[in-house]
Fold each of these.
Amino acid sequence: MSKKCLVVYASEAGSTQEVAEKIGQVLTDRGLTVEVHPVNQVRNLKGYDAVVLGTAIRMFKPLGKMMSFANRHKNELAKLPTAAFTVGLAMKDAATKGTADAEKCAAPFLALLNNRKSTALFAGKLDLNTLSPLFRMMMSNMTKSDPSSIGDFRDWNAIQAWAGTLPESLGLTA
């Protein structure tokens, strides 16, 4: 019988959702039974052998809905092998500036996961057309001084490679 893994995500503009779906596909391709859901659709973690949690980083913080989810399910998560990923623009310049900024942004989220077996910090995507009107206005003003912040900075090869390590790190291999 196939092991069952939940990939649960918090996304505001769709970038983190797309990463979660890619991770789910890789895990499915590795023979696992996988469900991918946004945090607001998950009521409990019963029946899963492992959980992968992912959140967007917005305004230098993990999304509140993922923080609430992790707090609400902390006892269940403590009993399940977990992996965590974040998606945000803080990783955009990781090759030149390192990962300290992204690690600082992710720290409150990661601190909630006591049984975490694997972590990844991925660069995100900024598409002004996918943002709420208020956030679009804020980001438009910010990106005027740095238009290089607009674009898709996700490294799909890195995302796929990390997802490929999860069955082993989460103890889901036969």
Note: The CA atoms of residues 38 and 86 lie 14 Å apart.
Amino acid sequence: MPTLEGLADADLLALRLAAQVLRHKAALAGRPLVARWFEDLGRAVDSAMARHGVGFVVGEAPTLALPREADESDRAMLVDHLRLVATNPALSPALRAACAELRETVSK
């Protein structure tokens, strides 16, 4: 998994918001495994922010991985949703690069 530690606090906040929105979209689409992945991403962001001294986290950061029972439709939705963030020109280059790395990781 790409590190979130190199992201600025503002980028982490933007990524947490993106994870919340994309989790909701996946849940509405009936893809609970994808929704759970984005929920885990939000928790990973919270952990990174806590290490930056912004906020706090109870528990350990999750490992970002789709469960074995995820099918190709789950993987395709996850990759597509990450593409939305990775190609958004309004976001910082560092955040777009981190999401592109995440996308590459889950598309394998």
Note: The two ends are 12 Å apart (CA to CA).
Amino acid sequence: MRKLLIVLALALALVLSISLPVFADTSQDVTVTATPSFVTITNSPGTWAVGNAGTKIFVDTFYYANPGGGTTPPSATVLDAECHFTADTTGSTVDVDLTVTWGSFTGGSCDMTNSDSDGSNGASTYGAFCWYSGMTYSGKVVVKSSGSSAMLEDHSAGSIKWGVEIETRTNAWAGSSASTSTLTVTATAS
């Protein structure tokens, strides 16, 4: 009987060991990676002489920032050759929106403020628009001193050629000395 009890005990132990789960690991690690988004922009050239360098500008006239610096607007679909500036966001790790703002002309005789409206000019205000290579020119974007809409949205890292136009104020200049202003292109994460 003792042998029978030992056999039954061993059989019961074997059944229990087969039916109970074995817990070797009670926890697992998960590696979590946090990669920062990064926006960078450069722009060249850093200057534009309205009209052409050394040329006097006229009141109530359109001028286009293109390599020729002239008074001829871009084609229906804007070409690289019709854009004066190149914005480069190559170092960005995310897509970006590009926005252009333009402040007042001061320090000379042809002072003007941005009309900050629909791109039209006035007695002491100028109107402005911007565009980029490859876009439809009729879709150009109004440039304001602040609060401009994005010229280009969801731009992948890389360079893009762009330009701007100004319609000078309608009233005569006070003299012949040059005024200056700051045109700014800004990249923000999309």
Note: The two ends are 83 Å apart (CA to CA).
Amino acid sequence: MKTKIGVMGSAEQLPALGEMAAALGKAVAARDLILLTGATTGLIYETGRAARDAHAMHIGISPAHNERENVEKYDLPLDACDAIIYTGFGLKGRNVVLVRSCDIVIFIAGSIGSLNEFTIAYDEGKIIGCLKGSGGTADEIERVVRSLNKPTSSKLFFESDPVKLLDLCLAALS
């Protein structure tokens, strides 16, 4: 079975990080992995679109009940995913489904929603990669873990190069 990589983080368009997001998507495709995202906008959209354009399978996990709600209520795109799973669970419920469906979770930038995804991944004992220098949640995770000091079986990796980060996480999975 193929490894499932979840990429989570900023749903904002951050042009300075667009190349980093696309490089991560291309690296997922080059390794013949399945990409899972929150079927959202911004950096996550850029990662998903790059992965799909490079022929990776990209599955989006939506907070919506259906395609119409995905577009009208959540204002989320449909064009970067090969398939979208409509959970109907809202944003927080979607996060649980998304994280639990992944073998590895990688964070690029992100805000409070990404922090929620991180706490789920950390409690679930996932392999977690943080793209250093991307800002937000990805750069705060190390401090949060050190400060709150809750032991789990999670393995954490911090790297500023998206390709190296992916490879570190994959090596930990082996």
Note: The domain at 4-173 is CATH 3.40.50.450 (Rossmann fold).
